[in-house]
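Below is a filled-in request sheet from our internal design queue. Each sheet records the structural input a requester submitted and the sequence that came back. We keep these sheets so that new team members can see what a complete request looks like end to end.

REQUESTER: design group, bay 2
PRIORITY: normal
MODE: inverse folding
CHAIN LENGTH: 371
BACKBONE (tokenized):
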């Protein structure tokens, strides 16, 4: 590194012979010292650059507009804008600036978004611990436009959801599970559903829309469950058939097994159990535990929708953990769908690490009829 540079400054990356290779954002505190903006060392990292990258990303999402008015417009490296997340909730944009480079150009990026999109507010939710790795403190609040109401109403696959953009998880809603909620709805007819780690009821509402007989939603956050109930009311879902239960999924699944309860469909969508490589073993045990309990609670022929959103959990290992859980629960399972993040969270061919969400829809085989 030549000279003293502020975090986020644009630098030229050269090879050993001094030949310029690319332009990137410098981050002195991060293990990732430079994130590439452009492999053309002669380009300018200016307003026109950001505007064109943003425009490409936004246009790529156009085909999604019919089924929802909430989507991820910019997904960091996958859209060649490392460290930048932009989510749209109706007429509000919620942004995260997660790298020194994205943070350095914040006001320019906000200006471009204002010019490219008709929105009422641009709000920041960079209140994430990952910013510390870039030497940045957490930051949130209004960036442009009018102060958005705390609750923004969105629609997705025919359902309405309230999203708390100021205090909700991530930027407010788990947009990445959109396609999987639709898949679940298609398998819910007549089933008794247990929705674990329900947050504001995403999968639970989808199950009801798909004709589920009843849904029990479990989450440790009372606030999330309150919103799940009000989301159900908003969609005129019969409250007798849609209930919420506050508590720890790990212990409640055990209690339900002791009480010999059973279900036709179980969703396991836990939070990220693995933040760094040291946590893989511990995370693996946690996944094993809940999947084992869920298999026991599932009736033969029932379906398990099981997920891991830990990017550091390899697909194959996750499959083995779930297979082990079935073995210990003394049942057989068939993977009938392999699940992943929705298409507005694309994976660039040269950045496979962006594929963080993985899941399976598994049918518990009825061994009474063979095997
Ligand atoms: N399926 C949801 C997203 C789940 S996010 C959707 O599609 O919208 C994970 C949720 O798990 C969070 O709401 C968090 O409050 C909850 N949670 C975390 N640990 C938990 C635990 N041990 N028991 C119950 N809920 C937990």
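RETURNED SEQUENCE:
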């Amino acid at each position: 590194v030549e000279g003293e540079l502020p975090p986020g400054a644009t630098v030229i990356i050269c090879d050993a012979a001094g030949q310029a290779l690319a332009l990137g954002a410098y981050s002195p505190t991060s293990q990732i010292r430079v994130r590439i903006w452009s492999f053309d060392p002669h380009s300018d990292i200016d307003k026109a650059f950001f505007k064109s990258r943003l425009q490409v990303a936004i246009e790529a999402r156009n085909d999604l507009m019919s089924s929802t008015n909430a989507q991820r417009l910019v997904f960091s490296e996958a859209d060649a804008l490392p460290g930048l997340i932009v989510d749209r909730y109706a007429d509000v944009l919620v942004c995260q600036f997660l790298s020194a480079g994205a943070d350095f150009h914040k006001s320019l990026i906000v200006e471009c978004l204002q010019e490219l999109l008709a929105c009422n507010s641009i709000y920041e939710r960079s209140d994430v611990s990952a910013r510390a790795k870039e030497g940045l403190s957490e930051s949130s609040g209004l960036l442009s436009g009018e102060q958005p109401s705390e609750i923004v109403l969105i629609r997705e696959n025919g359902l309405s959801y309230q999203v708390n953009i100021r205090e909700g998880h991530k930027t407010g809603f788990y947009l990445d599970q959109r396609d999987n909620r639709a898949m679940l709805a298609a398998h819910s007819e007549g089933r008794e559903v247990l929705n674990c780690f329900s947050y504001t009821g995403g999968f639970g509402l989808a199950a009801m829309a798909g004709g589920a007989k009843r849904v029990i939603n479990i989450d440790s956050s009372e606030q999330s469950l309150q919103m799940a109930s009000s989301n159900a009311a908003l969609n005129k879902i019969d409250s007798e058939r849609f209930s919420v239960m506050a508590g720890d999924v790990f212990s409640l699944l055990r209690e339900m097994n002791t009480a010999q309860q059973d279900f036709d469909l179980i969703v396991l969508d836990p939070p990220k159990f693995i933040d760094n490589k040291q946590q893989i073993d511990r995370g693996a045990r946690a996944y094993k535990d809940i999947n084992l309990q869920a298999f026991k609670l599932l009736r033969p022929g029932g379906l398990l929708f099981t997920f891991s959103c830990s990017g550091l959990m390899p697909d194959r290992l996750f499959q083995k953990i779930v297979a082990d859980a079935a073995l210990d629960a003394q049942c057989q399972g068939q993977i009938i769908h392999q699940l992943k993040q929705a298409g507005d969270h694309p994976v660039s061919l040269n950045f496979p690490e962006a594929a963080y969400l993985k899941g399976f829809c598994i049918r518990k085989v009825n061994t009474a009829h063979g095997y």
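SHEET NOTES:
- The pocket of S-adenosyl-L-homocysteine is lined by residues 174, 177, 197-200, 202-203, 218-221, 224, 248-250, 269, 271 (CB under 6 Å).
- The first strand starts at residue 10 and ends at 14.
FILED BY: M.R.
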